[in-house]
Predict the structure.
Amino acid sequence: MQEKTMRTKPTSSGAQDKPKANDPCGQRTSGMGTAAEVPGMVRMRKTKPFFERPSASRTAGTAVLGSASSSAPPGLVEALAQAGLGGTAASEAALRHVAERRAEELVEHLEEVVGEGKLLDAGWLQMGKEEIRKKLAEIFTGYLLEIHQIVQVSDVFNDLSVPCRTWRRPWADALVAAHHARQLWAPHLAVAQDFSQLNALGLGCIVLDGMVPPQLAADAHAELEQMAQDGKLSDFSQSTCNPGSRHLWLRFAGPGSDGDGLVPPALATLGDALAGLPGALEERAREVQLSSPRLRIVPNLMAATYGPGSHYVPHKDMYSGGSCGFENTRMLTILCYLNPHWRPGDGGELRVFNTLREAPASPGPGRRVPELLQITADHSESTTTTSHGEAFVDVEPLLGRIVIFRSREVWHGIQPSKAPRRWAVTLWVLADGQPE
Ligand SMILES: O=C(O)CCC(=O)C(=O)O
Ligand SMILES: [Fe+2]
């Protein structure tokens, strides 16, 4: 378990190193699958939930209505609860019915919804009641359908994810040391103890070699090659961020993973073991009284491959939905490289940049998520500022090498690959915004 074989270049390497302003590269933009399939796509809670389940005791909602108001339509959430439709099973027709009924009620109390700072501006008082009723019904229906979608996705996510402290693995517990936790969460402290090139960049990033049994890594590599041959990979990415890359998702545990034969054994074992790392890191941090965020595991690995010429421009793994107001909650990126034949000159190194001072990157507070389920490629506001510096370290994608870094801070990219297929599996570890 040592850090080794990294090359450092002190200067910028030109255009490829510079992300464009408005760089939409925080996530691959093709073949992303559904929100529920992609770790980190939904949860945005930290201390303040962006969305709370409808409940009778709640009088105001969060700002999901957007254009019409910054608060929930008066009484609508209560009406939903009274109709027994707070769960995920409500049909669209039932939600429309609740919305219509509430609109009818409110037309008799226009002062609650029309006027300065209210749901509809004072101009609406010029309209007839029927027109106002229709407008309210339309707004309410949109609101209910939106929050209903969020509840559904949130439920799926919660079913799929667990706090990392419940995913402890002896393998990871034995291998993770306190200094790893320091390197990750307090790099400024770690620098004093460890003068590695990576630490010198002042990042939260660690490289671990010799942890994955070589045979397991080789088997996992063979399984990926087989899956590629069997046509399981996505199409080639057309994105300017990571042109030519291909990927597939491997749900190695939990609902949807059993008996479907989609995750071959070595990859499943590897995923299960990697998922033990955050819990071990959290525990080590606790032991040395280091403050670190609580984390959550989604047992879903992404395997990605880069062929000749394909690369990934500098980016961070945290991204937001830009105009959608969506933001992921990725906290840690855990990579494991699976390239038994990698040689110097094959390219595909992970380039890790030093990071300039930026605003603290914690999961955002409540945001609008109107297009939540349609998220495809709108990550355009994720990286509006180019805040990595000139220095970088290239990390070779060697068989079994594990790299862990802070998704929200660390700028990284992949150098153009020259090898036929450069493989990595990634586990994104999410913030745990659940109450204590
Ligand atoms: O494979 C790697 O080295 C990094 C991949 C990456 O940055 C990503 O998928 O976001
Ligand atoms: Fe990345």
